[in-house]
């Protein structure tokens, strides 16, 4: 058998003898597992990994032995007909030492989530805290007036929602509000409800007593 006719295993074995290198030493120098080298020499190609691995192994072996790596690859192809039909999808696994590329879209989404989350955290007191309400012309318990026309005045956070007896009251940009009401003689009850965007409503009730004047038997008023 001529040099060109030697199969892969025969060619490697002969070259090892010429170089005086053992299989164990070849494994150490090339970094190819000794088990893979044994499979190559035994021509047990069906037990070997996919083609990209074998190509890499043969290039390393050729470098250590000082021979043509392409020639080794051609010999392997000649001995392994199934490899000729291997698909183009055969690829080496990714190198675990290579830093993976950063997905810019994922980074942008993550930054947006962090910014929005930070904004809501900063806004939590204004969204969830107890709403404030300042009524300027209503006493703690009862307010007594002598006119049927009364103006409810006060101030609040303009971002909160205010209702008086179920009617929505809209403050100005500074949170100041006014509401004209008509009183009935006697007690008039007003229920104020203030609610933040996400918090529980704050409710307070005030009474205004409309005191009317009456004429007595002596012609006076009381």
Description:
The chain has 222 residues and is an alpha+beta fold. The protein folds into three domains: 8-84, Orthogonal Bundle (434 Repressor (Amino-terminal Domain)), CATH 1.10.260; 101-130; 133-210, Sandwich (Immunoglobulin-like). The protein is built from seven helices and eight strands. The strands form two sheets. It has a five-stranded mixed sheet, with no helix packed on it. Strands 1-3-6 form a three-stranded antiparallel sheet, with no helix packed on it. α2 crosses α4 and α4 (51-65) packs across α5 (69-79). The radius of gyration is 46 Å and the shape is rod-shaped. Residues 82-92 have low confidence and may be disordered.
Please tag this protein with its features.
single chain, 222 residues, alpha+beta, 434 Repressor (Amino-terminal Domain), Immunoglobulin-like, 3 domains, five-stranded mixed sheet, three-stranded antiparallel sheet, 7 helices, 37% helix
Please specify the SSE layout and strand pairing.
Blueprint: H1 8-19, H2 23-30, H3 34-41, H4 51-65, H5 69-79, H6 81-84, H7 104-128, E1 133-135, E2 142-145, E3 149-156, E4 161-164, E5 167-169, E6 176-182, E7 186-195, E8 202-210
Parallel strand pairs: 2-8
Antiparallel strand pairs: 1-3, 3-6, 4-5, 4-7, 7-8
Helix pairs in contact: 2-4, 4-5
Termini separation comes to 139 Å
User: What portion of residues is helical?
Assistant: 25-40%
CATH top level label of the largest domain: Mainly Beta
Pattern of helices and strands: HHHHHHHEEEEEEEE
Low-confidence stretches: 82-92
Spatial order of the strands forming the largest sheet: 2-8-7-4-5
Mean pLDDT: 79
Counted by DSSP, the helix tally is 7
CATH fold category name of the largest domain = Immunoglobulin-like
Proportion of strand residues = 15-25%
Principal-axes geometry comes out as rod-shaped
Taking all Cα atoms into account, the compactness measure Rg is 46 Å
> CATH superfamily name of the largest domain?
Immunoglobulins
Counting DSSP E segments of at least 2 residues, the number of strands comes to 8
Structural category = alpha+beta
The structural domain count equals: 3
Main beta sheet: strand number and arrangement? 5 strands, mixed
At CATH level 2, the architecture of the largest domain is: Sandwich
